[in-house]
Amino acid sequence: MMAVQVYGCNHIVIEVTDAKKAVKFYSDVFGLKMLRGGEGAAWCKLGEHQFMAIFEVDTLQPDRTKHFGLMVRDEKQIKEVRKKLINKYKLTLVPGFRCDFRDPWGNRIQVGDLSDESLVWLLPYQEVQKAGITFTNTPRKEKRS
Length: 145
Fold this sequence. Notes:
Elements: E1 11-16, H1 19-30, E2 34-35, E3 42-46, E4 50-56, E5 67-72, H2 75-88, E6 100-102, E7 108-113, H3 125-130
Parallel strand pairs: 1-4, 5-7
Antiparallel strand pairs: 2-3, 3-4, 6-7
């Protein structure tokens, strides 16, 4: 019997009560491009080979600890996301994390960047080198904006 080999995560699904507002929110905060077709009310591209489907439901059932992580380029982009979440959308960040938040529908999202040492095994080493990313053994102290 052949061993199963997983190549990555193809897609994630979130539930919202208003798909049009969700599309505006995710397009605005992360610059996500919407795609055509697919299951759900809307779906958008996440990186090169993944997508997020947005399903519209009548009643939300927020999760306790379930969440997913999105990667942005660097700390500057994380600061941009934090600023928009707090100032424009009046959302509260989850304490103790660089950029964890619940969207307006209760979906928890964790935002990291390419310099997060815990993510390096997901990236081809050559891409890490091209991006000029280096790692230290000392965790960075985050400044909240």
